[in-house]
Amino acid sequence: MRMRRPPTLAILPSLRAIRLDDDRVVLSRRFVAGMQAFQRFWDGRVMCIIEPAPPSTLETNLDRTLSGDNYEVDPAELPFELVVLDFQDRRFATELARADVASAAVYYRHNHVSAVGRKVGTAVVYASEYTLRTRLQIARADIKSPVRLAKRVAWELNQERLHRESLRLAQGLHANGVPTFEVYRDLTPNSMLYFDGRLSDDMLIDKRVLEARIHGLLGGRPLRLAWHGRLNRMKGSDQLVLVGKHLRQLGVDFTLEIFGGGVLEDELRETIQREQLQDHVKLMGFWDFKALAEYTQKNHDLWVCCHPQGDPSGAYLETLGNGLPIVGYANEALAGILSRVNAGRVVPIYHAESLAKLIRDVSRKRRQLAEWARTAVSFARNHTFDKSFERRIQHYARVRDQYPKP
Asked: Where in the sequence of the chain do the CATH 3.40.50.2000 domains occur?
């Protein structure tokens, strides 16, 4: 009796690898850690098919904007098989055929993957993050030229048509966040919702730390607000100081600590000084992820999010896991997650004064804020990185079983 071969899972990231002259490649450590998680949870072989990028892209590629964690590695030293190959190469179909199930992205370079998968007998599960609405919001924030913006909008509209065609040929969908789940869920026979984040089970706020923080909150001390992320307009960090200005005008006793770095750092610092908000609003710089989590769990009561677009930021789930409720602008990602957990409220986008009034009202209802904090942790506990990843792997396995290779 012939033994069944171990099933193969192929990961096709939208990220690219930089291939050097000596056959070594430059990868992001965070990406490699993610691949190792696939290897740990999957009950067979894991391979990665990744497109090459020229060395000139080193400064802007591979998650460098997050932490600059790129490194050179010999592919033979990786704990998974790495195939560096242009997805338009004629050999792509041959490589994809080696997998039982493949994970691709809702991304313009991957629109053909599900069609190729059908031809070679490989089930394809797409992962989605951005709705058309969010992609257009990002385009409007980034592009100032009306002509260039019009071209980008037309391109995005065409891409949405191609994305939907590719999803209809796929066998499954992993939707990161509520917005793309609601938009795309009916296009594939097997769709699942998950919330991306780096918070592991052991990093959730300890109940004693949470209750000690709540005790101080109910004791009437100043409300301690926080936000972390890239300091740019796409993340709405320019709105934070404006919210702080309105809070002072409303007579709220508060502090707001802003963590991160970016192009708006000097502008924010100048605005804080000009508005004489130094006693209330502070720029804290970039902190290590774990150090920031530990600090936040003890020293903050509420996360203020001014994201004007629906990027499904992992910071939402990570913040809830730190025991912090979230108030902010009603972008579709934040509004989506708060539709699933009663741990915050939203106001219309760019309504900084309305957000300040919401924070004032929350400050007056501190028992409600305490309940939001407890609810936030309970929700995050069911959606930690380990639990979400395990559910995704189980979903890949179900798709594999439902669509076995011929």
From this structure: 8-195+386-402, 202-381
CA 11 – CA 76 distance, rounded (Å): 17
Q: Coil, strand or helix: which one is 173?
A: strand
Mean pLDDT of the chain: 93
Give the right CATH number for 202-381 from 3.40.50.1000, 3.40.80.10, 3.40.50.2000, 3.30.413.10. 3.40.50.2000
As a whole number of Å, the end-to-end CA separation of the chain is: 18
| The pLDDT value given to residue 57 | 62
Find, among 116, 128, 135, the residue nearest to 177 by Cα: 128
For the stretch 50-72, what's the b/e string if a residue is b when 16 or more beta carbons lie within 10 angstroms of its beta carbon?
bbebeeeeeeebbeeeeeeebee
Crossing angle for the helix pair 289-299 and 207-218, to the nearest 10 degrees: 40
Q: Is the pLDDT of residue 69 over 80?
A: no
pLDDT in tens, 94-117: 999 999 999 999 999 999 999 999
Chain position carrying tokens 């097997």:
190
- pTM value? 0.90
